[in-house]
Structure formats: C-alpha cells, structure tokens
C-alpha cells in the first residue's frame, strides 16, 4: 500500500486529481515492478523525443493494442449475470442428472442474454431474437442450455446457418443496415426459405421487442433427451418462465428507446440486481415419449416446430434467481464460452439436424474468439466441480497435470481413470440408413404452425405482426422481394395477407406460394400469446413522475409510496436535474432531466404540477411529447388536478379516457397503481 500524496509534475505541471491521504495499492507493471510515474513517458528532455527503453510505456501500450478479441459472429451484443438454480421437483424417474434430481440443491449459474444480428455496440431494442444462454456449474460438469427467447428457429439444417446470418446482418458492400432485418438481403433469403415462415411470425410479433431481459421467456428450442439411471430415455423441451410475466414494448417505443437509452436492457438488469430486486425464472420441462413423437403431426426433431403447451403441459421443476452482476464485463460476459456440447450424464442430444450442427460450431467458434484451446481454464468457463484429464500444454495453459504420467493407460498407477458408473454414456439408439444429403420428408410442412401461431394471438397482437411486416417490407427496395414474401402469407392467414398487401400498396395480391405439404388445421394455442396471459402485476416496472415547482409534496409522497407498495420503482423527472421545490418549500431532487427522459423509458407515467408549473409544461415540447407519447403508447397516466386542467389538452387532443387517472389523494394513488397492473390500456387502441 502507498499513501497517495499531492503529486507534482503531472501533465503540464497541473496537480494530481487523486484524493490525498487515501490508501491505494501500489501500481505496478504486469511483472510487479512498482511504478513511480504513470502520467509521463520517458523523454530525452521535457520537449525531446521518447526513449525506446521506456518499458513501462511499451508494456502499457502493447497491452492496450491487444485488448479486443473477435466479437461473436452472432449474438455479439450481450449482457450477463450470475445466480443460482434451485431444483424443486425430483426428476429421477426421467434422468440421472444430479442437477435435476437433488431437490433443494442450489447450482451456480451464469446467464448471458443477447441479440443476434447486431454488432457489439448495437442498441438493445433492435427488433431481434434474444439469446438466453444459461451455464449450470453442476456437480457433474458444466451444462450449457444455449437457448433463445423464441421456441422455434428459422432453418432446419445447420448448413444454412451461415446463409441466414449473412442475409440478416449488414449487407457486405455497404456495411449497413446494422442490427435490423428491414432490408433486401434478409427478406430475399427468407422469401426463398418457406421453412422460415413460422419463425417469421414470431420475429414480427412483439417477442422481438421485449420490455427487458427480465420479462422474456427462454426456450432450449431443440428436443433433447433425458436418460434415467435404468437407461430409459424420454424426449424433453426446456422452458424458462419469467416470474414477472412476459412483456414487450411497442415498435414506436423501441425506436425511441434506442435513441434515448441504447443500453435500456443492460441498465434494467443492472438496476434491478444491484437494487436487490432479483429476477427469477421457473425452469419447465415438456416431457414426451417416442409414442407421442410418432403421433404428433410434426417432426419433434424439426426446430421450426414447437410442441404446444396445451398438448404437453410444461412441468415446473425449479427456479433460477439472478442475484449478482459481474465484477468485470470482459472477463465474464465477453469471455464466457457456451457450447451446446456441454451436457451432463442423464441429458443427451437428439438427432435434430440443427443441434447436431451446433455441437460442431460452438467449440470451433470459441477457439477463434478466445484464441486458445485452454479457454476452459478461465474462471467463468471452468467447472466448479473437481475435474481431471490428461489434456496438456497449448497457449496459456494454467493447470497442466502434475507427475510423470500424462497418458493412460499407464502402469505407474498415476492419473485419472474412467468411471463406467458415474461417467457420461450416450443413449444407445439403433441407426441404419443410406448415407445421403437429404432433408426428411417429415420436415416438409412449413405453414401449419405459422398459422397456428398467428391465430393464437389477440387482435392487438395480430395488428402488430401485420404492422411489423409492412414496416420491414417497406424498407425493402426491390418490389419483387416484397411480393415474394407476401405470396407466402395466404398460406398462413388470408386477412393477414390482405392487410400486408394493402399496407404495402400492392396493386393486386401475388399468387400464393405452393406449399410442399398441405396446411394442417390446428387448434389455437392461447399459451403462445403474450396479451392473453397478462401477469396482473406492476412489480418490477417503472413509474416516471414528471414534477414541477409548487406541487403538493404529500401527494407526491402518496404516489411514491403506492408505487413502492406495488413493487415498482419510481424515477423523478423534472425540467432540471437539481429538482423542484414543493408548495411547502421542500426540495425534491430529480433523477432525470426532462429532455433526457422521454416517457418511453417508463411503464406508466404521472404528471404532478402546480397551476403555474403545468402552464410552463404546456409550452415545452419535451413535456408535451412526454405525455403525448405515453398516451399514444397506451400507458396508464396519472394527473394532478392542475396537470389535467392546464397541461393535458396542450399535449393530447383527445379527452382523458379510462386509462387516465385524476389523482388527489392516497386512495387515488393506490387506485392508479392497481390499474397499472394491466400494464397497458389497450382499449385506447380501438
Ligand atoms: Fe447459435 N451460435 N447457432 N443458436 N447461439 C453462437 O457461438 C450456431 C442457434 C445461440 O451468449 C455462436 O459463442 C449454429 C439456435 C445463443 O455467448 C456460434 C446454429 C439457438 C448464442 C453459433 C445456431 C442459438 C449463440 C457464435 C445453426 C437457440 C450466444 C458465438 C444450427 C436454441 C451465446 C458463440 C452467448 C452463439 C452457431 C443456431 C442460440 C457461431 C451453427 C437454434 C444464445 O457458434
């Protein structure tokens, strides 16, 4: 430790900014040499040339020059957190995996949420699938459940993945657009891949503009196997259900949030966890056997299909709690290396051709990104259970095996040995057939589940799907591509096709694409809708309160208390971040300056204003859009009397409706927060 004292000779002779007298560790080079001056490089004279012998400067710049590693080809933008998984239901009838059989056991986990298409610096609210990757550090090795927030995928065979991603990401000549699929290449590819139509319905739905990570479902997507101690196998699909409910924002909000706070999702997770408001997800399994798989009208190995929850209910077996942010983003979130190949005894892969391809790709990509076959030596990737193997050497080896025997078998009596009892055994399946490049006939139905998804949505959600298609296709320059996309829609739903054709101004409806297999009519699955399954809680949400000088401090306190009682957080917005003074002279500090905090950052808003303050707000563009946007985005709004009388009509031309609450007392405030449980006042849509 060294005492920092006032330093001289800093920069141009200015004074040190360090706090005098505080204890700090002594700064050293990487090899531990104490550093006396980290402000100035070594020169021949104050105005002379640098000297080559300056090892401190050389080491610092050398390391800086090598700070970046290749970003992920897909899922480059992501955010992670630590937590635990606690099993509540013993699955030993289905699997011998300890993580799924030891009730009450807490397994450490690390989660990384991500977007797919954007590069590392892209905004959080791009319309995109979200990655939902969970690493379980189990007693029997790491199990990575590398899923998404959508239960199906675009393609059926991994050999098409590079094409899909090339088409989705920025176009190769112009390097834009970034983090969005609203361009020719994406829709060109999609229009030529009818197998993507089910996924298209999901990505055009509100699932791809989630309110935040905390309000997303997660899915393992593929059918996996569970294998019990007796060697019996069952098929399984994994689900994560957010305790706070599933929620999304509106497209207009997403666009504006990307400008107002491109880190909206990151900040949300950081704020929640650091405030002790730990998000939780229940792990669910859908288990079925070969018989069900045979009877099911679609192939359970086809990742463009899901198994409706109404056919096979989701059994909740445990809970994941995220309770710790990383200490260092790079070391943990950037270096974490998920692999679908990481499974544990009792869990096994199926023949899903997408999963088989992924098992190859993830290991390969980690070597490229992390640069050494020893990437599992990094703390975030290392197992937390004992491990022993004879793999050695390579770049950055941290723990080479000790002793003479680095091979097996050996007669020295040294080193680890296999354990046929505890060890991983692949489920034995008899496979016969002709070696060929082929797609199974059972994968040929491309529209039935797309139709089922669309018909399972509420009218509001169906409208959003149509709007999203119209928006994206309007950005496509080539009319032939627009028409080719629309030609698939009659196979999904006639009205949807009409709406989109009309929204694009197509003169006439293009001829419908000919399905490879006739569309099967299936029952709608209400579980697929977000709005049909409202969480009925405002917990975890954020109320933005816009305040002015001269307000009633008691009403402000009542509203803040009501929000707290509802489990929500409050952010105070004012013209100046210094805050406002109430009618009784109390200062209320603001969290945000009005210009920097549009209402899209909040789930519901309140305006508490004095008569004079309200008149002032009415003259401010940022205040008017704060209210007008909240109204247009169907949010619940609370207004003090003066806000209603002197501000409302300047911002919103319509009369206040059932979603707008006049508040004047603690009871009113409680009533408003109760109404907010519905999250949006969708009736305003009508
Ligand atoms: Fe991935 N995917 N993927 N993927 N994927 C990667 O691995 C790949 C697929 C998913 O937060 C890469 O570490 C292929 C489906 C997530 O670090 C890469 C195929 C699902 C993440 C890769 C798929 C996913 C990745 C790039 C077609 C949902 C981020 C960087 C068969 C079930 C994990 C990396 C994280 C990342 C390959 C399809 C989810 C290149 C070949 C389906 C959540 O290996």
Written account of the structure:
- With 686 residues, the protein is an alpha+beta fold.
- The protein folds into 4 domains: 90 residues, Irregular (Cytochrome C Oxidase, Chain J), CATH 4.10.91; 253 residues, Beta Barrel (Catalase HpII,  Chain A, domain 1), CATH 2.40.180.10; 84 residues, Hemocyanin, N-terminal domain (Up-down Bundle); 137 residues, Rossmann fold, CATH 3.40.50.880.
- The protein is 26% helix and 16% strand.
- The protein has 19 helices and 20 strands.
- Strands 3, 4, 5, 6, 7, 8, 9, 10, 11 and 12 form a 10-stranded antiparallel β-sheet that branches.
- Helix 14 packs parallel to helix 19.
- The longest helix is centred in the middle third of the chain and has 18 residues.
- It is globular.
- 43% of the residues are buried.
- The N terminus is likely disordered.
- The structure holds CIS-heme D hydroxychlorin gamma-spirolactone 17R, 18S.
- The site of CIS-heme D hydroxychlorin gamma-spirolactone 17R, 18S (HDE) has 25 residues, from strand 4, strand 5, strand 6 and helix 9.
- The site of CIS-heme D hydroxychlorin gamma-spirolactone 17R, 18S has 25 residues, from strand 4, strand 5, strand 6 and helix 9.
């Amino acid at each position: 430790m060294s005492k920092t004292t006032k330093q001289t000779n800093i920069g141009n002779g200015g004074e040190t900014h360090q706090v005098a007298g505080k204890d700090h560790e002594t700064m050293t080079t990487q090899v531990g040499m104490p550093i006396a001056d980290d402000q100035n490089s070594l020169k021949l004279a104050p105005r002379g040339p640098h000297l080559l012998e300056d090892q401190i400067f050389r080491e610092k710049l050398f390391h800086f020059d090598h700070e970046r590693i290749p970003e992920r080809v897909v899922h480059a933008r992501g955010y992670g957190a630590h937590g635990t998984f606690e099993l509540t239901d013993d699955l030993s009838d289905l699997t011998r995996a300890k993580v799924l059989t030891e009730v009450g056991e807490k397994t450490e986990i690390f989660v990384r949420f991500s977007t797919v298409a954007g590069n590392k610096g892209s905004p959080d609210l791009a319309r995109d699938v979200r990655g939902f990757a969970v690493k379980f550090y189990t007693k029997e090795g790491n199990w990575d459940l590398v899923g998404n927030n959508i239960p199906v995928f675009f393609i059926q065979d991994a050999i098409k993945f590079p094409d899909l991603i090339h088409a989705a990401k920025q176009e190769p000549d112009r390097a834009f657009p970034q983090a969005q699929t609203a361009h020719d290449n994406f829709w060109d590819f999609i229009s030529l891949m009818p197998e993507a139509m089910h996924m298209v319905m999901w990505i055009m739905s509100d699932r791809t503009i989630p309110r935040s990570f905390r309000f997303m479902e997660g899915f393992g997507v593929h059918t996996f196997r569970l294998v019990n101690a007796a060697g019996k196998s069952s098929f399984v699909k994994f689900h994560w259900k957010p305790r706070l409910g599933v929620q999304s924002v509106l497209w207009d909000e997403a666009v504006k949030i990307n400008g107002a706070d491109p880190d909206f999702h990151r900040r949300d997770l950081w704020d929640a966890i650091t405030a002790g408001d730990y998000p939780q997800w229940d792990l669910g399994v859908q288990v079925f056997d070969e018989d069900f798989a045979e009877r099911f009208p679609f192939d359970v190995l086809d990742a463009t299909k899901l198994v409706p929850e109404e056919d096979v209910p989701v059994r909740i077996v445990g809970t994941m709690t995220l309770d710790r942010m990383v200490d260092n983003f790079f070391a943990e979130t950037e270096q974490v290396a998920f692999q679908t190949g990481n499974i544990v005894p009792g869990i096994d892969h199926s023949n899903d051709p997408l999963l088989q391809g992924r098992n190859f790709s993830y290991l390969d990509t980690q070597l490229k990104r992390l640069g050494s076959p020893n990437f599992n030596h990094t703390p975030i990737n290392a197992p937390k259970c004992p491990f022993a193997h004879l793999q050695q050497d390579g770049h950055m080896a941290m723990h080479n095996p000790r002793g003479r025997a680095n091979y097996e078998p050996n007669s020295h009596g040294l080193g680890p040995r296999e354990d046929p009892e505890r060890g991983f055994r692949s489920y034995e399946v008899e496979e016969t057939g002709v070696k060929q490049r082929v797609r199974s006939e059972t994968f040929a139905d491309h529209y039935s589940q797309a139709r089922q998804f669309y018909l399972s949505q509420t009218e509001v959600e169906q409208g959003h799907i149509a709007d999203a298609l119209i928006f994206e296709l309007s950005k496509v320059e080539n009319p032939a591509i627009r028409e080719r996309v629309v030609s698939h829609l009659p196979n999904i739903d006639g009205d949807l096709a009409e709406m989109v054709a009309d929204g694009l101004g197509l003169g006439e409806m293009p001829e419908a694409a000919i399905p490879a297999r006739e569309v099967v009519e299936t029952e709608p699955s209400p579980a697929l809708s977000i709005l049909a399954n409202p969480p009925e809680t405002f917990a975890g949400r954020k109320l933005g309160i816009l305040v002015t000088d001269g307000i009633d401090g008691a009403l402000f306190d009542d509203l803040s208390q009501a929000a707290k009682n509802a489990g929500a957080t409050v952010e105070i917005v004012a013209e100046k971040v210094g805050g406002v003074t109430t009618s009784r002279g109390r200062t209320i500090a603001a969290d945000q300056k009005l210009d920097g905090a549009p209402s899209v950052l909040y789930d519901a808003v309140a305006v508490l204003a004095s008569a004079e303050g309200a008149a002032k707000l009415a003259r401010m563009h940022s205040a008017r859009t704060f209210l007008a946007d909240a109204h247009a985005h169907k949010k619940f709004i609370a207004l003090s009397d003066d806000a209603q009388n002197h501000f409302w009509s300047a911002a919103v031309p319509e009369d206040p409706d059932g979603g707008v609450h006049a508040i004047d007392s603690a009871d009113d405030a409680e009533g408003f927060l109760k109404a907010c449980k519905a999250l949006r006042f969708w009736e305003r849509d009508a």
